[in-house]
Amino acid sequence: MNTVMMYLRKANLLLCLSLLLCMPVHAKMDTSVIFQYSTLNALQAGVYEGEISLSELKKHGDFGVGTFDGLDGEMILLNGELYQVKSDGRVYIPGKNMKTPFAQVAWFLPEQKIALNNIDGIDAVCGKMDGSLPTKNLFYAVKIKGLFKSVKLRSVPKQGAPYPALSEAVKSQAIFEAKDVEGTIVGYRYPDYISEINIAGYHLHFISSDRTLGGHLIDCSVDNAAASVDQKRGLYLLLSETDEFKRTDLSKPQNDSLIKSEK
Predict the structure, then answer these.
(1) How far is 149 from 116, CA to CA, in rounded Å?
(2) What is the CATH number of the domain that holds 112?
(3) Does 18 reside within a domain?
(4) How far apart are CA 189 and CA 185, in angstroms?
(5) 108 within some domain
(6) What is the dihedral of CA 49, 60, 36, 30, to 10 degrees?
(7) pTM of the full predicted structure?
(8) Are 178 and 150 in contact (CB under 8 A)?
(9) Residue 20 covered by a domain
(10) Is residue 25 part of a domain?
(11) How many domains does the chain have?
(12) CA 123-35-19 angle, 5° bins
């Protein structure tokens, strides 16, 4: 009897493992949430030590923004492809084993289109977007593709330990500007109540269609573009377990410095 029971238990275990391995990957994922690794508050405080690999990050989405270990450039995840814009303004393909100290990704499933034509300035672009959203109290993944009259971008050079605060690191940022360029803006809009976890409002990166230019979006003027919007109803936050994160004082409000660092 014991031999029979042991055999049945082993058979049952093998069956359960087989079912798990045969499950589609997306069946185990909630596509209505944003996956965020660490907090922008921690990044602003100088927590630049990467922990989660890019290959692991891509299991949580095909669309997103972030940075790399040591603050080594701007991250863009578009259509499942990862890009790294370094402080020389060039676009690179990062290695899958590289790590990130901060990123936000999601499965991009747009459900709303917004026409953006002849709009000057990032504030006007975001204002047009806000006026077309059903509510400002939810999360949104935003992709804006088209022709831009101008873009102003930045990237920060890789930092060395001991790491400075983000507000200090961006003082050495490189600025890139281009006119009459085709490309895509990738990013998110977070509601106002999300302060400390992430900056309220829009966090946007840009990459040109020919993949020769990119960076954190500071300003832009739109000629003819279309925004695709994916409303998200939740946020999955995974915190860092690095010693650097654990010993950093994150109790102080960082809103003002966050805003200054992201402009």
Answers:
(1) 12
(2) 3.30.1330.80
(3) no
(4) 12
(5) yes
(6) -160
(7) 0.87
(8) yes
(9) no
(10) no
(11) 1
(12) 150
Expressed as residue numbers, the domain containing 231 is: 30-261
Measured from the Cβ of residue 28, the count of other Cβ atoms closer than 10 Å reads 9
pLDDT in 10s for each residue of the chain, 263 residues: 444 433 334 333 333 333 333 334 343 578 999 999 999 989 999 999 999 999 999 999 999 999 999 999 999 999 999 999 999 999 999 999 999 999 999 999 999 999 999 999 999 999 999 999 999 999 999 999 999 999 999 999 999 999 999 999 999 999 999 999 999 999 999 999 987 789 899 999 999 999 999 999 999 999 999 999 999 999 999 999 999 999 999 887 655 655 555 65
Tokens of 237: 């936050």
- Residue 97: phi and psi, rounded to 5, are -90, 0
